[in-house]
Amino acid sequence: MKVTVLGVGNTLLGDEGVGVHLLRLLREENLPEEVELLDGGTRGLALFPYLEETTHLLVLDAVGLNGKPGTVVSLKREELRQGPALKFSAHDIALPDLLNLLEFIRGEQIEDYRLVGVVPASWKLGEGLSKPVLKALPEAIRQIRAILQAWMPVYQT
Fold first, then answer.
1. Assign residue 70 a region: left if phi > 0, alpha if psi is -120 to 50, beta otherwise?
2. Structural domains counted in the chain
3. Does some domain include residue 61?
4. Which residue from 8, 105, 118, 130 lies 20 to 30 Å from 63 (Cα-Cα)?
5. Is residue 157 part of a domain?
């Protein structure tokens, strides 16, 4: 089993960088060695080589759905498969395309993949997160932990 937690986003665009900020918080956790934390920035399909061996993928990102800023969103495989109908963030990493390419090249499906994101309040130039997104971080971390525990029952927070 190889679990990859992929934080994506542009930290220079305020809340758009929430995925990378969440990844930084996870670096302080006592995670099992099977978990790789990967800062994907805004690399999109260029992330492919880093994910070839991944069996379980958890993406952390800003989620541009029409929700209240600071709302934590958790999407499962089936919802992520909907493709272009979902706009994940300002950089639009083409997540469905990346997953399809990964599975096509490997010749097998990734066992599971999920997305945990936060609805942004602002994508304005600036390195900090807005108050609603900052308040959402503990809930996002709680949901991330729950997913990791479901994938790896031996993992305890």
1. left
2. 1
3. yes
4. 105
5. no
